[in-house]
Amino acid sequence: MSPLRWIILLAGLAFVALAPTQMKNYGVYLTTLWCVYLIAGMGLNLTVGYAGQISLGQAAFLGIGAYTAAIMSKAGVPYLAIFPAAAALCFVVGLLLGFPALRVQHHYLAFATLGFNMLVFLVLRNEEWLTGGTFGINNIPRPTLFGWRFNRPLDFYHLTFAVLVLTGVLMAFLLRSPWGRAFAALRDNPIRAESVGINTTFYTLMAFAIGAAYAGIAGALFAPLVQFVEPAPFGFATSLSMLLMVIAGGSGRFFGPALGSVVVVLLPEWLRFAADWYLAVFGFLIVAMMIWLPGGLLSLPERVRR
Amino acid sequence: MTALLEVRDVHKAYGAIRAVDGVSFSVTAGEILGVIGPNGSGKTTLFNSILGQVKPSAGQVYFEGADVTGMGALPLSRRGIGRTFQSLQVFGRLSVRDNLIAAGQEFSGSAAGRLFARPDAGLGGRAEEIIALFRIGHVAHLPAGSLSYGQQKLVDIAMAFMASPRLVLLDEPCAGVNPALIDELTELLLRLNREHGGTFVVIEHNMDFVMRLCTRVICMAQGKVLAEGPPEAVQSNRAVLEAYLGV
User: Which of A225, A239, B114, B238 could potentially form a cystine with A59 if both were Cys, beta carbons 3.0 to 4.6 Å apart?
Assistant: First the structure.
């Protein structure tokens, strides 16, 4: 990366870290939610953008992570154990889903993952003994880590931001490694990838499971953020929003989900001036963007140059 | 000399159609074998049967003495068989250099080791060698998908050599390539054969290319081997002329 890009990146990170200090509680909440969605979006970008698989089930993994955090924290398990547990559980579920589901591709895979999302939603809604059913689980405590309590919205935001930076660094490391090249190779040309020794089954599964683990970490932050979980936020609509996040920002581009999650989480809030029309305006903007910028917002400079 | 590749009585039928009908041949190390024949004669089906893309109805394929019949692309590549396809097969969004590294990175170490390996998987030097050999240094940093057809063809072929395979099967390397590049490709493959001991099996329609490159030629027609021998002998074979020209 060039020095200029490093400066832009560090300035951007400093802005995101500090901006909420000047915000009211709702602004801090929204920025925290943006970070949470961004972590899940980074995972989905790995699955969709880098490895070329389609997934309409990311919200299910977000839900598994959130309920894992809710149940474990209510049982008194420290968050230091909850984050890895949520990630590991989603990784394993991602592998178990991936083994049969990744035998199919494209729209068939989309429907397989959609079915999985429905299944998880039904489990969350119907298995009251574990999940509280439609009543959900409330009074989820905010984390305490190394004696530091993250009760205040701003403190919790900084924790979420730190996790975002950490997961971002890990993702950058993964994508720069030979694994990242293998993911891109199987996205671009799976037949050739296999002929040059790339184990497409292994790498597809890994992309899917790591993407799921990221959603698990995001879920483990979502639960203490809202301090109440119920099945509704983990339905199909959220999975679609996450896919929109990846595509609107720029699928297969590292910073794509960062912009995409601005579109999905923050843009509807900024459009509230349009009152009852805000959803219509939002929908129109998305349609227009998909037509003129199919490569996502990050493809804007290339579009301008053409 | 022991055969590097041995194809024994391979058959492949699709219903009543016998695409490959009892083909046998062998390839020794250092040889360049040409496979020619009119369209529909079974050349590509034969390739696909050798490379496990289709399962032969009968017969065996041996590589370095081991039975590899029906083995898929992945285990065959790991045993040292490289290939190119009839159509262009590059990783379009990766740079040329990354295409080459991707083509070689899986052949050493473990998957876990590659996760923590250097970004170039320790293959930067090898990639530069291949780039220099194929004279594609001026486009090495560009996405492979942005190159001209001929340049992509070179990258496609170069990728097959990245892992130092002991045998490379080339499926119509001259298809859609301009005459100047065909000359360059011929020189390159001859050099790889002479200096690096490269062993190739080449399916090709361009007879001039086959005559200049191959040490031995097999002509196929209707799924069978019609003629086999030195290029000049096969070219002037009466049955071959009949199959090609209908005379």
Answer: A239
Cα Rg of chain A (Å, integer): 19
List residues of A whose CB lies inside 8 A of any B CB. Answer: 174, 176-179, 181-182, 184-185, 187-189, 191-200, 202, 252
Quick: pLDDT tens for A28-61: 999 999 999 999 999 999 999 999 999 999 999 9
Quote the minimal CA–CA distance from B153 to chain A in Å: 13
Closest CA to B170 of B192, B197, B200: B200
Instruction: Give the tokens for residue A82.
Output: 């909850």
CB A66 within 8 A of CB A222: yes
Using CA atoms, how far apart are residues A92 and A210, in angstroms rounded to an integer?
9
Q: pLDDT at residue B175 above 80?
A: yes
Overall residue count recorded for chain B in this entry: 247
C-alpha span between A214 and A36 (Å, rounded)? 10
| Residue B9, token pair as written in the block | 């009585």
Give B247's pLDDT tier (boundaries 50, 70, 90).
low
Are B111 and A199 within 8 A, CB to CB? yes
Residue of B nearest to A199 (CA): B74
Q: Which residue of A has its CA nearest to B165?
A: A196
| Contact between A56 and A117 (Cβ < 8 Å) | yes
ipTM of the modeled complex: 0.87
Residues lower than pLDDT 50 in chain A: none
**From residue B1, how far is each of A157, A286, B81 by CA, in Å?**
72, 67, 19
Cβ of B193: how many Cβ atoms within 10 Å? 17
